[in-house]
Each structure stands twice: as structure tokens, then as C-alpha cells.
Amino acid sequence: MKKIPTAPNLLTPDDLEHYERRGYLHLEGLVDLITLSELQEAAQEFVELSRGMEGSGKLLDLEPDHTSDEPRIRRLNSPVDNHERFRNFALEGLAAQLACAVLKGPVRYHHSKLNFKWSDGGEEVKWHQDIQFWPHTDFSPLTIGVYLEDVDESMGPMGVLPGSHTGPLYDQYLDSGEWGGALNSADVANIDLDDMVWLTGPAGSVTVHNCCMIHGSVPNDSSKPRPLLLQTYSRADSYPIAHIGANGVTGQLSGAVIGGKSAQCVVVEGREVIGAPDWSQGGAPTIFGSQQEPV
After folding, report:
1. Does residue 7 carry a pLDDT above 70?
2. Each residue of 161-216: pLDDT tens digit?
């Protein structure tokens, strides 16, 4: 369990109502300058590391034309597991505080990533919903994003479709049956893209979006990268469903409970299941040992 300092004034009642109704928050310049500088420095360490790489690996996903002289990074995988500053921010710092505030109680950390969206054509992220990538036992999961640099409309900011978190959950497979990770063209044709809200803002601006929200971004046509640090949480009584999507490959710290305790309780088909303790780290006892009365 990770304890975090309280932040009673982080969100207003209007902010919470906006998230419930619209499915997202856009908090400009929320991250303080010292924390922002620390995150920027940590991100730059991985840019320098990439110069010695010729292709993608488990840590960094690189664009095909990446070179040591001109690095082009798509994504840093699991920054929380790979740098102390990202870890502190997500499990104890502002992101952890904000997750607890939006979800109104203890939260369960799921995973993190840093999408760089490099300059001069950094790739688009097609319209999609997140929950199909890593289904949970409810729809509480949300993702908190932090822009590490100033972002304007030319840089491929994230776009969200307000209210879509309460709408249909789309099939994100291709016609071939392969996983596509995006809405198909027929479904996109039925979406009014004029209703998209583009979340721009100065460095340190924060986005929050629900796991069912339709969102994406266009290519970055500017001369500057658009690094967006992302971390995902759910309520503490929400659990990722194993053997579907990315669940199980989300990092060593995935599942950490922040801001309280897990009740080890889940509701299935209206019936409450009070589960056993989490034995994933220390191993499970036998039923014989558990049933012995204390002497």
C-alpha cells in the first residue's frame, strides 16, 4: 500500500461533476515547475539512451527512421518501473493524489507509458477506447496525462469526445480478425469529429480521461516533439481481468494500492465476493495451513 499526502483543494466540486458528466478533465499548468523539470530531465535520459539503439526493444519503441544523430522515439514503456522520478510522481506525487481525488478514495495503479510523438510527422494515434486493451471488473479506470512540453494545435494534441464514456464500447478488431486497436472506419464515420475537444496547453498541463472515452491524436506536424506522460489507475476495488489484452504485462508495480487499503472484495453478477489476501508476491499458503486454529 502506498500512502500519499492529502490534497483537499486539488479539484473543485465542479471539476468532479465535469468528469462524471463529460468523461475528462483538462487542467492547464497543474504540475509545479520543480516537478515538471524533474520529469523533463528523466525523459531526456531515455532520449540519450536511445542514441545507442538501432531498433525497438522492450524499453523503447522507436520509429523506423530513428538514428543516433536524430533520435525518433514513439514510446518509453513502463516509465514507473524504469526511473525513480516517474515512480514517485505516479505512486506518491501529484498523479497519485489526482487519481485518488477523481475516484474519491484509494486507487489501484495499473500501468504507465511516455508517448513522445516526435516532431515533423510523429505518428497519429487513431480513435480508440482504452478499456478493450486491458478490461477490468468495472469502468472506473482512468488515465492521467502530463504534457512535458508546451503543446499547441500543430503538435498533435490529444482529442477527446465528451460524453462518449457512457456510450457504446466498440469492436477494435480489423476485418481480418487481427487486433487493430482502433475504431473501424464505419464507426468513425458515425462520429461527429467536430465535437472533439483538443487538449492543448503549456508544459505541466494535465489531462484525465475515462477508460471508455473515445480519444486519439493526429500526427505532429511541428518542429518539436510532444512528450505525453501517461499513468492509469482504477478504484481499489476494481481488478484487471487476466489473460485479456495487456493485463499481466503492465509492469512489476502494477496492482499497487495507493491512498488506503484494498478490501479484497469484488461484486460479480450482483453477489459480493470477499476474496483472500493478495498472495501474488509472497506465494499462496495451502488450505491446510490456513485452516489450522492458532494455538
Report:
1. no
2. 999 999 999 999 999 999 999 999 999 999 998 999 999 999 999 999 999 999 99
264-274 pLDDT tens trace? 888 888 899 99
Residue carrying the nine cell digits 469529429? 193
pTM of the entire structure? Answer: 0.93
Q: Cα separation of 286 and 26, whole Å? A: 49
Measured at the CA of 152, the angle between CA 28 and CA 82, to 5 degrees, comes to 70
Separation between Cα atoms, residue 48 and residue 60, nearest integer Å:
12
Asked whether residue 153 is domain-assigned, the answer is yes
pLDDT at 2 exceeding the cut of 60: no
Q: How far apart (Å, rounded) are the C-alpha atoms in residues 146 and 196?
A: 19
Question: Which ranges in 162-213 belong to alpha helices (H)?
Answer: 185-189
Q: What's 240's domain CATH number?
A: 2.60.120.620
CA separation for the pair 150, 227 (Å, rounded): 9
H helix count then E strand count, the chain: 7, 14
CA 177 from centroid of its chain's CA atoms: 26
Q: Take residue 215 and report the three cell numbers written for it.
A: 480519444
91 part of a folded domain: yes
In 3D, which of 181, 66, 54, 47 has the Cα closest to residue 116? Answer: 47
Q: What is the mean pLDDT of the chain?
A: 92
Structural domain harbouring 71: 13-261
The C-alpha cell at 179 is 487486433
Number of domains in the chain: 1
